[in-house]
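Re-run with default settings, no changes from the original entry. Doing this only to confirm the output is reproducible before filing.
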Amino acid sequence: MSKSGDRSSHGIGARLAAWWAWFAVPGQWSGRRTTGELALAGVLALLGAGTEDLLGGEGWVLAAVAAGSALLSLVRRRLPASVLVLTAGLAPLVPGFGPLLLVVGWSSGRYIAGAGRALAAFILAFVVNVGASLIGPWEGSRLLTIALTATLYYLGTTLAPGLAHRYWTQRRTLLHALQERNAQLLRERTMVVGQARLRERQRIAQDMHDSLGHQLALIAVHTGALEVDRELSERQRDVVGVLRNASVTAMHELREVVGILRDGIEAPHGTAAAPGGTADETGRAARGIAGIEGLVEAARTAGTSVGLRRSGEERSLAPAADHAAYRIVQEALTNAYKYAPGAPIGVDLRYEPDTFVVEVLNEKPTEKPAKDVVSGGQGLTGLAERARLVGGMCHAGPADGGGFRVAGMLPYGAAPLAEAAP
């Protein structure tokens, strides 16, 4: 008996599971929706039983109307056309189904697939509703009156809500389609702009490579030949060597900049070089705090008086901030070469508890700058933006005594990148 009972319970459970799989469309019945449908079914059951009770119904009729209203409410989404026709036929005969007819009409406008099928379902429901209204004893003179009343009732409680819901659904679907198309157009536009920007960057990179690369190569070749000229003094050979090293370094940096413009990815730079080293095994300058000493040595070799001072306990910076410190010193030294020739320069690297401070101060120039100084006018402005992007700040301006100071404050560790200015 126990095995038979288990098999019977298992069979009932399987049938219930199969019925639920048919009833609840996969992916559409969430917990919130299930709760709402059950609540609506309960409300319609109470309205149906209450309406029937007001009109004189009693006993099993009330229970049947309540159960029928709840059941038809639950399956109205799965079988919209069948429930519409059935409810339209029952409403004139059983007034308790009147509240349900309003909800079924509204729901059928959305869930009946296809305009032709929806039109056929509403026409059939209208015929059934009017026909059911004419069932029973009536006087011949009242036939048209009953038909007119049933028609108006059907139009107000069933057809009008169904058309309104169908229009609202189609409008919402159209808006969603337009929004998706607009988003797709924006994505395509972004891709087109990105491709155009990439092509322009590649063109600029090619122009830079063809023009500047050729000139820098000529400078490197001629300075290399001049360096071994026996007629030059030792001092002149040192200066020519500085020029040759600068041209070779410039070619390597130009190659990296061209790669950034072409591919949009910055090549890794040697931030882990030894403190006294000025270049890695490929000949590229160490592009970080480790390379600042090389910049100072190169300036000294060229005859400029540059002092370097370090203070505080050394700590590591984020790669972008480390590179920004190198660029601040490089641009500040270049600015001093141009506008304060012969003036002593001091480079101060301070490891403060919360930030790394780099300061370059040149004293009052003893000579006037050359008239043919080439300047783009964007170097110091670019330093401020570079420091801001790594979460720091950079200031450049006159110093006391007639000199000029460039100072930057950069964060330790991985600082969040700020958004670039438009």
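Confidence is low (pLDDT under 50) at residues 265-285, 415-422. Residues 35-135+142-187 form one domain.
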